[in-house]
Specification:
43% of the residues are buried. The strands form four sheets. Strands 1-2-4-3-7-11-9-10-12 form a nine-stranded mixed sheet, with helices on both faces. It has 372 residues and is α+β, with helices and mostly antiparallel strands. It is globular. The chain binds zinc ion. Zinc ion (ZN) binds next to loops.
Length: 372
């Protein structure tokens, strides 16, 4: 294993931070996978899964079983880890700019299209190699004027030329689920099966360019520009995996999830040796535009009467919202027929807050599809 340190550009003198990446296997001798944990720094289940992965990958490397390259970023957000305010970690938004740490990754399609256009031909594998070289150069050339931009540049640089990108997160309270591009769903079903996920939320453009889409959708954009005479595949399977809820920090779950990820890497040929039998598929791919937030009509105490994982009919009672001043009690009901897959982990709401999400089969929303 090769440990690489990436000092972040200092936004303020005397505040040096660094990112650490762990590199297993041999670059160029097979596929490349890039896995990062807790880009939202306070989503700790992902950090623990990365620690279990670290041990598994070290053992596999000692046994000579890693083919290709696996990059693991065990704590992807040193800026967020440092943002403690009133006794709580603020790991989702950069406190200086207000920006979500998992948005605004560079869309590199324009930057590389002109450069690769004269170099592409009929050989798809050669085209992939040409585009990857150009993508690496484009990331390196991205201007970074502050530590947040520099962090994004470093993370994208570790993943942009990978065949597999897994971005590990969690929700408030949730089932294990993941986000990926709709155009990747046929290939991503294997990931869902290995993870034992019940749900994949599918969108090709969820808004504001999250990390996984920056890595995967650049291939669709370039393929669309060049057409069949210069063929390009979806060369990167990228997914944002939500490892249940914030409080699900348990060794048994983390061990299981790390093994599931290793199982997926083995299925994709990055790990040699016997591969366990695949569990039956339980994963349903549904449109992200069919995921409907439950919005609090007023503030108050939030009392759930349904658990995540329940399948609901439109109008089913999910929660009560109680105004402690007036005593008004409002029933929060399911907006659609669907799966109640995620809910808020705080129990006092303010007006307008999202209290949870139910996903159905019908695409109902447009525009930016992710929460803040
Ligand atoms: Zn997250």
């Amino acid at each position: 294993m090769r440990l690489q340190r990436h000092p972040l550009l200092q936004s303020t003198p005397g505040t040096q931070q660094e990112l650490v990446s762990l590199h297993y296997g041999t670059p160029g001798r097979g596929l490349k996978a890039s896995i990062q944990a807790s880009l939202h720094a306070d989503e700790v289940p992902a950090t623990l899964v990365a620690q279990h992965l670290r041990q598994l990958l070290a053992d596999l490397e000692d046994a000579g079983r890693i083919r290709g390259e696996i990059v693991l970023v065990p704590a992807a957000n040193p800026i967020g880890l440092h943002q403690w305010m009133l006794h709580g970690m603020q790991g989702r938004f950069d406190l200086r700019s207000g920006e979500n740490f998992n948005r605004h990754y560079a869309d590199l399609a324009d930057a590389v299209a002109a450069q690769v256009q004269p170099l592409l031909g009929a050989d798809m594998a050669a085209n992939v190699a040409t585009v990857r070289t150009a993508l690496r150069q484009a990331v390196a050339a991205t201007p970074s004027t502050n530590s947040l931009a520099h962090l994004r540049q470093i993370l994208l640089g570790l993943a942009i030329d990978a065949d597999i990108v897994l971005d590990l997160h969690c929700d408030g309270e949730a089932l294990l689920h993941f986000y990926t591009a709709e155009s990747l769903w046929p290939e991503a079903q294997l990931l869902g099966r290995c993870l034992g996920a019940e749900l994949a939320l599918l969108a090709d453009a969820s808004g504001d360019n999250p990390f996984d889409e920056a890595c995967s959708m650049v291939w669709a954009k370039l393929a669309g520009r060049f057409g069949p005479t210069k063929p390009l595949p979806m060369a990167c399977l990228a997914a944002t995996i939500e490892l249940r809820g914030e409080a699900d920090v348990r060794h048994d779950l983390a061990s299981r999830d790390a093994q599931a990820i290793v199982h997926y890497l083995a299925e994709r040929g990055l790990i040699e040796g016997a591969v366990p039998q695949l569990p039956p598929s339980t994963c349903e791919g549904l449109p992200l535009s069919g995921s409907i937030p439950l919005v609090a009509p007023h503030g108050g105490v939030l009392v759930f009467v349904r658990d995540t994982g329940e399948r609901l009919r439109s109008g089913d009672h999910i929660a009560d919202l109680i105004d402690p001043f007036s005593g008004q009690r409002t029933a929060i009901t399911s907006p659609v027929d669907g799966l109640f897959f995620a809910r808020e982990n705080r129990r006092f709401a303010v007006a307008g807050m999202s209290l949870g999400k139910v996903v159905g089969r019908t695409p109902l929303r447009q525009g930016k599809l992710l929460s803040a």
